[in-house]
Design brief:
The protein is of the alpha/beta class and 227 residues long. The protein has helices at residues 15-26, 40-50, 66-77, 92-101, 113-124, 132-159, 164-174, 179-186, 190-204, 209-218, 221-226, and strands at residues 6-11, 31-37, 54-57, 82-87, 105-108. The chain has 2 domains: 6-129, 3-Layer(aba) Sandwich (Rossmann fold); 137-226, 3-Layer(aba) Sandwich (Rossmann fold). The chain has 11 helices and 5 strands.
Length: 227
């Protein structure tokens, strides 16, 4: 007994692209085009109504992230429907947002028809592999995360060596207080303030207290200690 064709829905706001994809994919004996829509909202509505197996989903349609929202909604309402992204955008943020939403594959629109067909078939079988381009992005992201983690650990080790007064001074600077304001608020001499700043810079091995505050803000240190 032959296997049922893959029920495929195409979602793209460009009519020529939808027509091209429909023309190419409709000739495949193992695929059946069950819909062609121009928005993320319609993609969700139609995919549920026609019981699509795979949705070929653009990202930017009625809104810049319409495809992402549609993928997320389908993943909740009908996880058996597989979303394959087909888009012009290949940046880190869009790729990871798509996979986080529930996409099973991510293809750039300049990919060959064979790649698109392979992806649809693999998605239908729940056997999608990580493409070299996506794998490269993932490796890059993990390297960045590892570097950030190491930076956070090293910074926390310094934070724990700060005195309560030094930590308080940094918090006030992060809030935008000036040297004069801090001196008045904490009833200290200017020379005392400068001594604290000097000690902080030695511990962090940075040239200015502004650099220290910037680093701590970037790593979310103030949220860790004051929330």
């Amino acid at each position: 007994m032959s296997q049922s064709p893959i029920r495929l829905l195409i979602a793209d706001d460009m009519l020529p692209i939808r027509e091209y994809l429909s023309m190419v994919l409709s000739h495949e004996p193992d695929m059946k085009i069950v819909g062609s829509v121009e928005s993320g909202a319609l993609a969700v509505e139609q995919a549920l109504a026609v019981k699509a197996k795979v949705v070929l989903m653009d990202i930017e349609m009625e809104t810049p992230d319409a495809g992402i929202k549609a993928i997320r909604e389908l993943a909740v309402k009908a996880p058996e429907i597989k979303s394959v992204v087909l888009t012009h955008f290949g940046n880190h943020e869009t790729v990871f947002a798509a996979f986080e939403a529930g996409a099973v594959d991510y293809i750039i629109k300049n990919s060959s028809a064979a790649e698109i067909l392979d992806s649809i078939r693999a998605a239908a079988l729940d056997q999608t592999a990580i493409r070299p381009q996506i794998a490269k992005l993932i490796r890059s992201e993990f390297r960045a995360l590892r570097s950030e983690r190491n930076n956070l650990v090293a910074t926390l080790n310094i934070i724990y060596k700060l005195t309560p007064t030094e930590l308080d001074l940094l918090r006030l600077l992060a809030e935008g207080k000036t040297q004069t304001q801090i001196i008045e608020m904490r009833h200290i001499e200017a020379s005392t303030f400068r001594t604290h700043v000097g000690n902080i810079l030695k511990k962090f091995k940075l040239a200015s207290v502004r650099d220290v505050v910037s680093l701590l803000k970037h790593l979310g240190i103030f949220e860790i200690f004051y929330t």
